[in-house]
Amino acid sequence: MQMGKFASRLRCAGIALALMSTNVCLAASPDHPPETAQTKLFNERDLQGWRPAIQCDAQNLTDQERETLAQLAADDMTVHWQAAFGILQYDGAGKPIETERRFGACRLSFQWKCEPCSSATIGLPGGWSVAIGDAHCDGEAATRASGAIYEGCRRIVKPTISADAPLGEWNQMMIHVRPRQIDVWLNGRRIAMTEDLFIETEGPITLSGGPAPLYFRNVVVEPLEISPGQQNSQLP
Q1: Given this model, what pLDDT does residue 161 score?
Q2: Which residues form the signal peptide (predicted)?
Q3: Could you say which of 85, 115, 126, 229 is the most buried, measured as most Cβ atoms within 10 Å of its Cβ?
């Protein structure tokens, strides 16, 4: 009789230990792992995280006009910007789109390709932008290499070399945005840099272009930690 009670207690203790072990394992493997520094701006399925970039003075509009404009812009985005097979496709005829999130100093990387005579503008925080597109739209003799840096509509820096892949092939671009510097890498080569900037405001990442189709994939942004005394790096 005593042996039976002892065996029963052993079984209960074993079950309790098993349950405790299960709880420990569950606690060590949460459903939502901690976020990494990198953020995918395009989830390869839809336009979640993007919105129309309304380029007008909305303060001068009535509530009804603002609502109508927002609806028209949303309709335009769904028609001209599509997600398919892991690629963000733009038909070249729509309005710009921008991220819902705002960024400061960051490292933006993405892959892109285009069709003949197409171009695009990558809008950056602080009102700056980088141009990409068909580098040989005007013929082989007159190239329009990707990577030029703009402030508004004014080109500040043109690329030092043409590093564009052949038309129709994927290009890999990386743009570093720091408080006083922007530098651009294309297909593993550093092609443009400008210094002595004043990028103190945060802003969205913007995509616009035309008149022919463009394609984007693997769009990733990573915030940069900038120390006050950090020096800008020079072009090689």
Answers
A1: 94
A2: 1-27
A3: 126
Query: pLDDT, tens digit, for every residue of 141-197?
Result: 456 899 999 998 899 999 999 999 999 999 999 999 998 899 999 999 999 999 877
Tokens of 156: 């500040």
Tokens of 146: 């990707």
Q: Report the SS3 class of residue 231.
A: coil
Q: Exposed e or buried b for every residue in 200-232, given b needs 16+ CB within 10 A?
A: eeebbbbbbbbebbbbbbbbebeebeeeeeeee
Instruction: Say how many domains are in the chain.
Output: 1
Fill in the amino acid letter for 51. Answer: R
Closest by Cα among 97, 105, 156, 103 to 122: 97
Q: Classify residue 177: in a domain, yes or no.
A: yes
Q: Is residue 217 part of a domain?
A: yes
> Has residue 10 got a pLDDT over 90?
no
List the domain range (segments joined by +) for residue 203: 39-223
Instruction: Report pLDDT for 139.
Output: 62
Q: What is the sign, positive or negative, of the torsion defined by CA atoms of 40, 43, 49, 51?
A: positive
